[in-house]
Amino acid sequence: MTRRSYGTTAAETTPALSDGVQENENEVLDESRALLGRAGEPQNKPDSKKDGHATLVSCISNLLNTIIGSGMLTFPLAMASSGLIPGMITCVISGSIAAFGLYLLSLCATKTKHRHSSFHAVSQLTFPGAAVFFDAAIATKCFGVSISYLIIIKGLMPNVVESLYHALTSESTNPPKWALEGRNWISFFMLILVPLSFFRQLNSLRHTSYIALFSVAYLLVIVITCYYWPLNGMPEAGEIRLIHFTPSFVSNFPVQVFAFTCAQNLFPIYNELKNNSQARMNIVVGGSIGTATLTYEIIAVFGYLTFGSKVGPNIIAMYPSTTVFVAVGQLAIVILVLFSYALQVHPCRNCLDKVFHPGHVVVPVKDTVDEDEDDEDEDQDRGGDEHAQEMSVLKHFLLTTGIVLSGFIIAYLVDDLRLVLSFVGATGSTTISFILPGLFFWKVIGDI
């Protein structure tokens, strides 16, 4: 910057003012381009030299929102199948496994081209021939989870409407029939979900993640409050045991393990995090997994202590919904699931792009900019998108539209949530959470 004296003229200050205005315009542009794509003006420097713009708080919030979903409502039942102490231990073990997998993936991300890491990019460094199959499994998993969110909304909203209607009014009549039809609600909520699904960057979804996490906090308040001050109409608590394994433990333990699945968004967060050093990535991983583990433990412990062996598969359904306090809690679940939808569409779209155009990353292309040639030559030996280009506007629009439209049609016609979740668990979840992190790390370290 040029030093100016107090006698600087107005003409001399104009460039500085223009620079400040330009910086503000660039900040606004970075936020607005997330909806449809990059600005039409070319950049002066290659993408590999850009720094991220996402903060630690936004990255932790987005990853935490990816982790926490409706599966947290089943944790008290999982604890009832093993007892209080084993249930707490298995929850910590599940979180530790997930955190270790994310840590391995973050190490693998450092071997890819700067801020262009992805499952496909790491696959090109490890198992190039299987890269398309890995992306297909991840896309299938994310697509199935997004459908399950819509089905959950379809099933919950009629109960929420009925509960709020009777809690807020003194009328003995029922709500209008259209308000008790779940298909009408997912059709209405698509007006909110469609714009969110078109955002290109996870950081653009940070505000919806904040809202979703407030919903989780409200659910914690319900579980803790109803333990100390039980509501009228709550069932009597069953037997509470410190250690008591039942045959259902075999089927309930995987629920805890898969409740921590979030690896599909680890690479986008790595790309967007400002100063994405390993230490800062460890904070993101530890903060998100640690908070999720604490949340699950609170819900599991207080839910189990409240209902004991009589606890059901959905803890929020155990509380009488005749009060506004609990009815709003049911609405909080809808909000949580609603604002988690776009976090599944984002990785699904990116993986489908690689599935349909796998050749885009096979042969790295050397950047033409002469600055910092040594750093750029090093980047060419790493995985990354060819030319380091973003997805075109047309491709982004077509893929997003296809994912959202097909998912809506399936959710509109299908009511069996277990069918969707079993399909997801048998395909992408296992691959993402347990197979790929260790496999990638073993191959990357072995090739060093």
From TrEMBL:
<feature type="transmembrane region" description="Helical">
    <location>
        <begin position="211"/>
        <end position="230"/>
    </location>
</feature>
<keyword id="KW-0812">Transmembrane</keyword>
<feature type="transmembrane region" description="Helical">
    <location>
        <begin position="282"/>
        <end position="305"/>
    </location>
</feature>
<feature type="transmembrane region" description="Helical">
    <location>
        <begin position="84"/>
        <end position="105"/>
    </location>
</feature>
<comment type="similarity">
    <text>Belongs to the amino acid/polyamine transporter 2 family.</text>
</comment>
<dbReference type="GO" id="GO:0005302">
    <property type="term" value="F:L-tyrosine transmembrane transporter activity"/>
</dbReference>
<protein>
    <recommendedName>
        <fullName>Amino acid transporter transmembrane domain-containing protein</fullName>
    </recommendedName>
</protein>
<dbReference type="GO" id="GO:0015189">
    <property type="term" value="F:L-lysine transmembrane transporter activity"/>
</dbReference>
<feature type="transmembrane region" description="Helical">
    <location>
        <begin position="250"/>
        <end position="270"/>
    </location>
</feature>
<feature type="transmembrane region" description="Helical">
    <location>
        <begin position="317"/>
        <end position="339"/>
    </location>
</feature>
<keyword id="KW-0926">Vacuole</keyword>
<feature type="transmembrane region" description="Helical">
    <location>
        <begin position="54"/>
        <end position="78"/>
    </location>
</feature>
<feature type="region of interest" description="Disordered">
    <location>
        <begin position="32"/>
        <end position="51"/>
    </location>
</feature>
<dbReference type="Pfam" id="PF01490">
    <property type="entry name" value="Aa_trans"/>
</dbReference>
<feature type="compositionally biased region" description="Polar residues">
    <location>
        <begin position="1"/>
        <end position="16"/>
    </location>
</feature>
<dbReference type="GO" id="GO:0005313">
    <property type="term" value="F:L-glutamate transmembrane transporter activity"/>
</dbReference>
<feature type="domain" description="Amino acid transporter transmembrane">
    <location>
        <begin position="55"/>
        <end position="445"/>
    </location>
</feature>
<keyword id="KW-0472">Membrane</keyword>
<keyword id="KW-0029">Amino-acid transport</keyword>
<keyword id="KW-0813">Transport</keyword>
<dbReference type="GO" id="GO:0005290">
    <property type="term" value="F:L-histidine transmembrane transporter activity"/>
</dbReference>
<feature type="transmembrane region" description="Helical">
    <location>
        <begin position="397"/>
        <end position="414"/>
    </location>
</feature>
<feature type="transmembrane region" description="Helical">
    <location>
        <begin position="125"/>
        <end position="152"/>
    </location>
</feature>
<feature type="transmembrane region" description="Helical">
    <location>
        <begin position="420"/>
        <end position="442"/>
    </location>
</feature>
<feature type="transmembrane region" description="Helical">
    <location>
        <begin position="182"/>
        <end position="199"/>
    </location>
</feature>
<keyword id="KW-1133">Transmembrane helix</keyword>
<dbReference type="GO" id="GO:0061459">
    <property type="term" value="F:L-arginine transmembrane transporter activity"/>
</dbReference>
<feature type="region of interest" description="Disordered">
    <location>
        <begin position="1"/>
        <end position="26"/>
    </location>
</feature>
<dbReference type="GO" id="GO:0015194">
    <property type="term" value="F:L-serine transmembrane transporter activity"/>
</dbReference>
<dbReference type="GO" id="GO:0000329">
    <property type="term" value="C:fungal-type vacuole membrane"/>
</dbReference>
<dbReference type="InterPro" id="IPR013057">
    <property type="entry name" value="AA_transpt_TM"/>
</dbReference>
